[in-house]
Please model this.
Amino acid sequence: MKPSLMDFTQKELMGMIKPAFRVKQIFGWLYHQYAQNFDDMKNIPKSMKEELSQKFVVNPLTIVNKEESTDGTIKYLLQMQDGKTMEAVWLKMKETQLDSNGEVIQEAKYTICVSTQVGCKVGCTFCLTAKGGFTRDLTAGEIVAQVVTLKRDNNHKHNRKINIVYMGMGEPLDNLDNVAQAIKIFKEEEGLAIGGKRQTVSTSGLSTKIDKLGEMDLGVHIAISLHAVDDELRSELIPMNKAHNINSIIEAVKRFPIDTRKRVMFEYLVIKGKNDDLGSAKKLVKLLADIKAKVNLIYFNPYPGTDYDRPSRADMVAFQEYLIKHGLLCTIRDSKGIDISAACGQLKEKTEQEI
Ligand code: SAH
Ligand code: SF4
Model:
């Protein structure tokens, strides 16, 4: 596998490619024009492109499957240079609003959900990605290229704002070096210019790595996949909890540098008969008492072969109301793209069965 130009910051590329103004032009081709290959780079001399193509690829990803939901969610299956595949999702968060003259007063807002690994080592019992085991880490360029590829495919101009959530396949903090490099490349002013505030790293709770990410001071948000309020159930759902228990996660979150106006998001996957009772809600309120937190309740999304069930809407709402009544901000994640194999890993699984 050749490295991609998207593996590097602008400064790093300037250390490898001369003169510097060419690197600036190339950066524009990568992140403003979404070039797919060297042929696309019109103002770069042919000899230079030939030389560069010996060492680098431009976009290391190709789209192999795409499923579009009626709510605007588009799920992509992307293939890498070694033939391995992973998913990225284009999520529509808000509709475009027009005034009476048909002028845009608010543009549609989008979020891109990126993968960080092929498979995952954490092995959560409810997660389809975990079923296939772990294959490999994604490179920084493969993470960056997911955003470039999806923006390009949706004709989303480089200067239109976008949010990134590291919530696709894999555990981002288990591939921290490449994830941190991707965060820096996204932030590049002359690239996509996506600030830390617009990037949220979701983790199943590798507490020591939460500290490491905090020390890097990249200005990103974190989301903690908590899912349970006692270690017994959490260790059943997330085997790694034995090494990184709930208490160690809560302590790491308290040390994490966040904008004091912001809240740390806790994701709570609700599974029928496991963690959907008000006793759990009560413990959750206690657990998060000293943290500026918000809770996002997620319906468990069933797939063939799973032992778990989706909770009822009534239990979900009762859980939410309890949290709100006791002072926690709480939302229920609407199951975006529920009609298109929504939960992580499900499109990959489906496509591989069809092939
Ligand atoms: N590894 C990281 C990020 C990727 S998983 C983490 O665990 O946080 C992203 C989210 O998908 C997690 O919150 C996870 O709980 C959720 N998820 C996994 N399987 C699911 C399923 N079957 N139904 C609904 N959400 C699921
Ligand atoms: Fe890995 Fe996250 Fe799936 Fe757990 S939920 S197996 S950490 S991807």
In short: Residues 120, 122-124, 127, 129-130, 169-171, 204 surround iron/sulfur cluster (ligand 2) (CB under 6 Å). The chain has two domains: 1-59, 60-354.
